User: What shape does this take?
Amino acid sequence: MPTINHVLETALYVKDRARSQAFYETVMGFRLLLDDGNRLTGMAVGDSNQVLLLFTEGASTGGEQTPTGFIPPHDTHGTQHAAFAISEDSVDEWRQQLSSCSVPIESLVLPPRGGTSIYFRDPDNHLIELASPGIWETY
Assistant: This one.
């Protein structure tokens, strides 16, 4: 069986990409990689080689013809969940960052395996988690 290296992209579907981009830049420190001006914003997740894609809700239901090929249709509605990895020693710093950006922490969980999960909402009410090592057998 061929090997999968890691999750490359995580997509969230949002009502207002500019608002969501500002949230992820200001609160999370993500860097803009791509803004097609219509349906898609791509953001670098920290110093990793992973990407957060912000799609305008409903804008990808017909697919997208690009100069290099066709991207099949996709979309979703409702509240989504995404988790981002943090170090255990940055948990308090992240709590302070969220507070300084007026982002309420919805829940703080200390899973039985170890680690910490900080849960909060983005502007589209998606559940965002910051998770430190130990919450999964593989992390």
